[in-house]
Write a structure and sequence with these properties.
homodimer; alpha/beta; Dihydrofolate Reductase, subunit A; nine-stranded mixed sheet; two-stranded antiparallel ribbon; RibDG_C (chains A, B); DHFR-like_dom_sf (chains A, B); DNA-binding (chains A, B); DNA-binding protein (chains A, B); DNA binding (chains A, B)
């Protein structure tokens, strides 16, 4: 029953899913407009808000359902590259990262595991998609594994055909530059069934379900 | 933050939300067609299935999110009426009722509380909607309260203006008879904002959010 899932992947009309340059000041590389309709408060459930339960929020709330581990790229964890500087960096999220599970961070520069009181832990691994996925599945306790991004990591897992479910939110904006999500994935739709709905916010939610995997 | 919510209320094109006569053989009174697109496996999360995650299933999965107690009408609990017969009836659901929380059952004929190992308990109360809602809120531990149906109970709570959120699924079938959901609710839309989406299954999901309650 263990699936590998991607949630809340925001993609512009021209196919960008992040900005070009991630910095400390711009965690998503100047592509903040991609996330203008996102409501991170509901990733662990619609009951976390008093605001109206919209279709968008219902879709966002799938993020945390039955997830036992996450895999993310290094760039989602921080703006640094190369050897880790001795700067105490523990990710963008402060003392309470929202993951609540083990998180495996792909990097060529492993470092010591970080553990947080809320159940989140960051494990730094230099591994292929297949290998880190096995690590994450072992850690997930029978629950699903989320591929958390960024877009380059999602693309890599899609190219390796390791994704069972992908929730894309198409945002009707034109970014003009950034990290492209659909490169090297021509014909991806042949491996998936896709259902789309559009909501009153202007978002189009696409649910990609991998066909015919046991 | 505590809300009173209704989920997965299936309504036919002609406004019926259950069949006429509930019997042991027909728990929903011959209106089974209403539930033809329903997938009860996902009420505690989309990860409970290996089948594709459709928009319908994503919407159904809101049912269990952050719920601390349910209120249901007697007819949802069983087909009996009047004094409870000494027949050992403990509901339709066997040893593992799917609720996992306290459930308050409205009846003029109170009986002893039933408790199950999975966290479900059935409490039988003869009370007004306002009073049973207070009981349920006290039992919910800061989480939300679900009004579980049947349709007469939902209608009663809507008439009393006690519902904050209502998820209706309009099913494109014509039942011709049954329990009507919209009677005595003319102008209900004035108290709510409503968002609708239609999915590839033919269902239309409506999310009704109460306007302007603190």
């Amino acid at each position: 029953m263990v699936q590998t899932r991607v949630h809340n992947l925001f993609v512009s009309s021209d196919g960008y899913a992040a900005g070009d340059h991630v910095t400390l000041e711009e965690p998503i590389g100047g592509a903040g407009a991609l996330f203008g309709k996102f409501d991170g408060r509901v990733i662990h459930g619609i009951h976390r808000i008093k605001d109206p339960v919209t279709v968008d929020r219902a879709m966002f709330s799938m993020w945390g359902q039955g997830i036992g581990a996450e895999i993310m790229g290094r760039r989602k964890f921080g703006p640094q590259s190369g050897e880790w500087p001795d700067d105490g960096w523990e990710g963008w999220w402060g003392d309470e990262p929202p993951f609540l599970t083990p998180v495996f961070i792909l990097t060529h520069f492993p470092r010591k595991t970080l553990e947080f009181a809320n159940g989140t832990s960051f494990h730094f691994v230099d591994a292929s998609p297949e290998k880190v996925l096995r690590l994450a599945q072992d850690a997930a306790g029978g629950l699903d594994v989320r591929i958390g991004g960024g877009p380059s990591t999602v693309s890599e897992f899609l190219q390796a055909d390791l994704i069972d479910f992908l929730h894309v939110a198409i945002v009707p904006i034109v970014l003009g530059s950034g990290v492209r999500i659909w490169d090297h994935l021509a014909g991806l739709e042949d491996r998936f069934s896709v259902e789309s709905i559009s909501t009153s916010s202007g978002l189009t939610h696409q649910l990609w379900n991998r066909i015919g995997r046991d």
